[in-house]
Amino acid sequence: MDAVPVIDISPFLDGTGPDAVVRAVGAACADIGFLVVAGHGVDPSIIDGAVRAARQFFLLAPEEKCSALPARPWYFRGYEPPGGSALARSLDVATPPDLCELFRISRFDAGPVQTRAADGTVEPELEYFYGANIWPAAAPDLRPALTTYYAALEALAATMMRIFALALELPEDWFADKFADHISNLCVNYYAPQVTEPMPGQLRRGAHTDYGSMTVLYQDDAPGGLQVMTKTDGWADVPHLPGTYVVNLGDLLAMWTNDRWVSTMHRVVNPGRTDAGRDRISIPFFHQPSRDAAISCIPTCTSADDPPHHRVVTSGEWVLGKTRKQVGAG
After folding, report:
1. Domain range summary for the chain, segments of one domain joined by +
2. How many CB atoms lie within 10 A of CB 93?
3. What is the DSSP secondary-structure string of 29-82?
4. Is there a contact between 316 and 183 (Cβ–Cβ < 8 Å)?
5. Which pLDDT tens digit goes with each residue over 281-293?
6. What is the value of pTM for the model shown?
7. Residue 304 buriedness (CB in 10 A; 0-12 / 13-18 / 19+)
8. Helix axis angle, 142-167 relative to 18-31, nearest 10°?
């Protein structure tokens, strides 16, 4: 557990020791870009409700799950069957499809863009960012469980961004306006029992970095879990501790910080054959700045001797390019 630190953020939330939390988080972001967060304040019943409703959905018959299929593979809403994407392709690495099926939601269920998306008259890029969620009729508990969970993770992510700002010697609210219309996605990953052995090079989720600002991940304790690429020891398991979240940085935060903080490669491995009959659920919340937010070097992360490393991109430009590669759409 030395590679990924465990940090209790409750002293930041209750004001009893915020400076120590800020220092610890900043050190983890610079060293490995991963941390396990305890003391986060998310109600366990909200987590249990999301996991329970998700498992009920994934155990439905295939035709019932496919009622929530999106019309296009890069429209990241609703259900994605096994074989729909390979995360390693986002880094231009050719691999077999990932051994995972998914269900995704965003903040958006109604509004003018959603209406235009439904009748096919919206630009594809806007549909990707603002298209309406797709809810399966056969899983009535899924919508209330995941929308409640989304709101809880939205609040936790905002807290982490406040901690990040202070760790970067910025005002605590420095990131707030960059996320005023955030385009974050919540994704439930279901890893079914592996009845047959995977193909060579095939993983539950191939090696990749995340695209946005950060990811806040729930993972269960089933074998075949998350690994991170460390600086010295290669692939290391990310610890599962009940009641905690894994937080990892994405590409945009690394770019914002001029690579002082790191977006680290990670993957989800297959279980050994003795454990291949167990399923697994994880729920990543992909925190993404507003579509038009410009990702330019943070003032405290550059100097005359260390000019900006990256061209300025918008949040939307970056994530759309990455996801199209992931699904083989460009």
Report:
1. 6-326
2. 14
3. HHHTSEEEEE-----HHHHHHHHHHHHHHHTS-HHHHGGG--SSTTS-SEEE-T
4. yes
5. 999 999 999 999 9
6. 0.92
7. exposed
8. 90
Checking if the pLDDT of 2 tops 60, the result is no
Q: SS3 for 298-314, per residue?
A: CHHHCECCECCCCCCEE
130 in Cβ contact with 109 (< 8 Å): no
Separation CA 247–CA 218 (nearest Å): 9
The one-letter amino acid at 266: H
* Residues constituting the chain: 330
Q: Given the structure tokens 């296009």, which residue do they identify?
A: 72
Q: How far is the CA of 233 from the CAs of 4, 31, 137, 241, 249, in angstroms?
A: 12, 14, 47, 22, 20
How far is it, in rounded angstroms, from Cα 286 to Cα 302? 26
Which among 144, 47, 66 is positioned nearest to 105, based on CA atoms?
144
At residue 45, φ and ψ (nearest 5 deg) are: -65, -30
Contact (CB, 8 A) for 148 and 46: yes
The candidate with the shortest Cα–Cα distance to 30, out of 297, 211, 260, 299, is: 260
Give the class (CATH, top level) of 6-326.
Answer: mainly beta
Residue 267, token pair as written in the block = 């993957």
> How far is the C-alpha of 69 from the C-alpha of 155, rounded, in Å?
28
Q: 7-29 burial, b if ≥16 CB within 10 A, otherwise e?
A: bbbebbbeeeebeebbebbbebb
SS3 159: helix
Asked if residues 46 and 149 have their Cβ atoms less than 8 Å apart, the reply is yes
Give the number of other CB atoms < 10 A from CB of residue 114: 16
Residue 1: its pLDDT value, please? 40
Number of Cβ atoms within 10 Å of the Cβ of 47: 18
Which amino acid would we find at residue 236?
Answer: A
pLDDT in tens, 256-280: 999 999 999 999 999 999 999 999 9
